Amino acid sequence: MSQTDWDTLPEPADDGAADHLTGQALPDIALPSTDGADVRLAVEPGTLVIYAYPMTGQPGRDLPDDWDTIPGARGCTPQSCAYRDHAAELAELGVAAIYGVSTQSTAWQREAKERLALPFALLSDAHLHLADALNLPRFQAGGEVLLRRLTMIVRDGMIVRVHYPVFPPDADAGRVADWLRANR
C-alpha cells in the first residue's frame, strides 16, 4: 500500500490505552510460535521488538466487514513485511529477536510467515493471556477479539518504549530503528 493509500484510511487516535506499558515487566507467559516452540518473552535475553497486530489476511478469505473503516485495522501484512525488510538493520542495532503477536491461531500465522518469508516467529495470543496480563488495547471485528496495533521495545524483560498507535504500519520498523539508534 502506498503512502497515498494510507491517506484514505482513518488514522487511529492515541486513546491512552497503552500509556501504562512503559516500565512494566513482561509477564512470564508461554506463547505458541510459528517456529514450533513456545516462547516465554519475559526470559528472552537482550533487546526484543514485539509488535502486536490485529490479523493478517489470507488469500481467498475475506477480511471482516468494514475492515477499512476501523482506525488502524488495515496494514498487518505491510507492517510484517517492513519488519522482514528491516530485520538485518535491527539486528545490527542490537535487537536479539523480533516477534509479531496476534490473536490468530498458530496455523493461521504459519501460513502468513511462510507466504511473506518472515525471518522471525509470529506468536499466538489466541487465549488472550498476554493481552490480559498487560491489559493490551483491543477491539472486536468479525466476531473476534483483536489486538490494536502497538510496538514494544523490551530490554531484558522490561518494556522500555511503546509506539502506540502505530500508523502508517509500514513505517513502524523504521521508527523503531530510529529510536534504537538514538537510545543506544
Automatic annotation (TrEMBL):
Keywords in alphabetical order: Antioxidant, Disulfide bond, Oxidoreductase, Peroxidase, Redox-active center
Domain Thioredoxin: 20-184
Region (Disordered): 1-20
CDD domains: PRX_BCP
GO BP annotation list: cell redox homeostasis; cellular response to oxidative stress
Organism: Oceaniovalibus guishaninsula JLT2003
Tagged with keyword Oxidoreductase: yes
Gene3D superfamilies per UniProt: Glutaredoxin
Listed Pfam families: Redoxin
Protein name: BcpB protein
KW Oxidoreductase (keyword) present: yes
